């Protein structure tokens, strides 16, 4: 099995994207674009609330209508808890996710939160 993705890996994946900063978001380490959060690690209270103890978890933004298909096609790497039902956010199991797939999910999440100016700069790269 491959080495699990870490927060440092995630920061490195997005380091060159326009407007991205590493910052706290809802009390945990995360990434923002133009000051808007698009990916963050779960905090200790969330692991306890949802009884998840076997992986680190990353919160990603997504289209709420596409979320069920994304989760179903992920082979268990993506999931949601009752807290995220009906919301455009999904959870990634960092022990199980393929790094190449994660880059795509991060890009989708970035695109949801980035301004049109930042997206233009991103697409020009």
Q: pLDDT average, as an integer?
A: 94
Question: What Rg is obtained from the alpha carbons, in whole angstroms?
Answer: 14 Å
Strand segment tally:
6
Q: Largest beta sheet, briefly?
A: 6 strands, antiparallel
The separation of the N and C termini measures 33 Å
Strand proportion, as a percent range, falls in 15-25%
Text of the CATH class: Alpha Beta
Number of helices: 5
Strands ordered across the widest β-sheet: 1-2-3-4-6-5
CATH architecture annotation: Alpha-Beta Complex
Helix content: 25-40%
Task: Count up the domains.
Answer: 1
Structural class: alpha+beta
SSE string, helices as H and strands as E: HEEEHEHEEHH
- Per the CATH scheme, the topology name is Aspartate Aminotransferase, domain 1
Describe this protein's structure.
The protein has one domain (about 5-115): Aspartate Aminotransferase, domain 1 (Alpha-Beta Complex), CATH 3.90.1150. It has about 120 residues and is α+β, with helices and mostly antiparallel strands. It has helices at about 5-15, 45-50, 65-75, 100-115, 115-125, and strands at about 20-25, 30-35, 35-40, 55-60, 80, 90-95. The chain is built from five helices and six strands, in the order αβββαβαββαα. The chain has a six-stranded antiparallel sheet with strand order 1-2-3-4-6-5, with helices on one face.
């Amino acid at each position: 099995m491959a080495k699990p993705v870490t927060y440092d890996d995630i920061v490195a994946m997005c380091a060159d994207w326009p407007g991205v900063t590493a910052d706290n978001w809802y009390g945990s380490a995360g990434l923002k674009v133009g000051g808007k959060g698009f990916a963050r690690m779960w905090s200790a209270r969330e692991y306890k609330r949802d009884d998840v103890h076997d992986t680190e978890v990353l919160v990603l933004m997504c289209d709420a209508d596409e979320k069920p298909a994304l989760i179903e096609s992920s082979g268990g790497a993506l999931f949601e808890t009752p807290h995220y039902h009906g919301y455009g956010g999904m959870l990634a199991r960092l022990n199980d996710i393929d790094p190449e797939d994660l880059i795509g999910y991060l890009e989708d999440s970035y695109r949801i939160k980035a301004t049109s100016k930042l997206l233009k700069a991103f697409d020009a790269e």
